[in-house]
Amino acid sequence: MLTLTLAALYLIKKKEVAAILGPGNSMQAPFIINLGNQSQVPIISFSATSPILDSLRSPYFIRAAHDDSAQVQSISAILKSFRWREAVPIYVENEFGEGILPYLVDAFQENNVRIKYRSAISLHSSNDQIENELLKLMTMPTRVLSCTCYLI
Known about the structure:
Helices cover 42% and strands 16% of the residues.
């Protein structure tokens, strides 16, 4: 990340960058948005979709994609169409993974889908910890899993 930062700063200062296309994902966004604010360079993102980014309120951040909250209605509609009444959200245990949960809960409630359990997996989980969580999920009667992932 340091190399990327130095390269971005060099380009902004020496090459008079007009705009930055990025970040590649929601987790990188706060840093890149801050860089855009400090350098007064617009950041145009096609892939930072977490609703948590709305709270950053930057005049230099332009999201060119729907945020993740727009997807929950579709997920909920699929569950409704198959008459599935229970689901387990699986998500990354951080502000980005957890940021979609309120929207997911609301959409599920509108379609009478109950969240039986929430499976939060840390970015720092070992393979054994992930395997244990998956084993726990396999023993549950709920068979509908809604996975929210972010690439790192």
